[in-house]
Amino acid sequence: MPAVNRTRRRQIHNTPSELGSAFWATPSLCGLRNIGNTCFMNSVIQCLSHTTELTRFLRAHHTSTRTATSKDQQILHEFAKLIQEMWTTNVHSVTPMELKRAFSTKHRMYSDYNQQDAQEFLRFFLDSLHSALNSGVKGETLNIDDNLSDNKKADLTWEWYARHENSLIRDLFVGQLKSTLKCTTCGNTSVTFDPFWDLSVPLPSSSRCKLEACLDLFIREEVLDGDEMPTCSKCKTRRKCTKSFTIQRFPKYLVIHLKRFSETRWSKLSNIVEFPTADRELNMASYGANANSNVHYSLYAISNHMGSTAGGHYVAICKHPVSHKWHEFNDNSVSDAIPENCLVSSSAYILFYERA
Known about the structure:
It is a single chain. By secondary structure, the protein is α+β, with helices and mostly antiparallel strands. The protein has one domain (31-355): Alpha-Beta Complex (Cathepsin B, Chain A). Helices cover 31% and strands 24% of the residues. It has helices at residues 3-19, 39-49, 52-61, 71-86, 97-106, 118-133, 150-164, 168-173, 211-219; strands spanning 31-32, 93-94, 175-183, 189-196, 199-201, 208-210, 222-224, 241-249, 253-258, 272-274, 282-283, 296-307, 312-319, 326-330, 333-334, 348-355. Strands 5, 9, 11, 12, 13, 14, 15 and 16 form an eight-stranded mixed β-sheet that branches. A four-stranded antiparallel β-sheet has the order 4-3-8-7, covered by helices on one side. Helix 1 (3-19) crosses helix 3, helix 4 (71-86) runs antiparallel to helix 5 (97-106) and helix 4 crosses helix 6. The radius of gyration is 21 Å and the shape is globular. Residues 30-356 form the USP domain. This is ubiquitinyl hydrolase 1.
């Protein structure tokens, strides 16, 4: 991360960080009313509400009098108002009508009251928040010497991306993937580096597996042959190649999407994925492009989808930032504390982790 961005982040977070746990002193077990098949939105909003650095920023820097000049800024404005209300003492349920209305103004597919996919909504929603806050400058072309080391290429690519896409949302949620393409004929290897907002990981065929098995499938080497053959830069013709991914840069908040639905959404996988639930239990070091033993993450929120593709329901399970107790947020209903050993289920759909 360039030095200018680190400075910017410190400026954003100094005030709320100094408040410590007092900033979160209110119980804030606040539900969200369902206003017509909006459980997908409610589940995601609860998970984002428990993303501590995002909520700190919104509570400290966005008041109800803030002027919104674009559709994205209106979404941010309404989201900040909602977060303020959700974390107000003695507020037990709020209606996210204005947020849905603002979001639907830009994303017309959400203007009706049909059930939607939570992960798709999350991507659109974060993109709108990022666009509202983005102070990046467009137009600069990326030119990198191919003779540089992979790590230097990655750094230059990230710095270029950060100048174009400069916001708190990027600071918190975006990582960098390294894609390696190798020609099976001449052995030539080429690498590219791309930002990612979440990891969509496939599920193995077994009825029960560990999250690591899904991550292994994500980074597993893939053979590109037939119609998928790319053009080798050295052979100057289409060649059979292998392609693999590793993580070059890990985000502060790692979002893992379990690909339970088929591309057409006609079927859903009900595998039980055993994911790490304890503090610092998820170790992502083995998936990194470089040796790094300090890539530990702690789970803090889950978006669950229950039911089938024909009819389903979303809930959120989140960890309170002060009490550290887990609660289920089922629209406007909030459960009492639930034990950690009850978190893993076949309903887990999106996992939210914070880097330790």
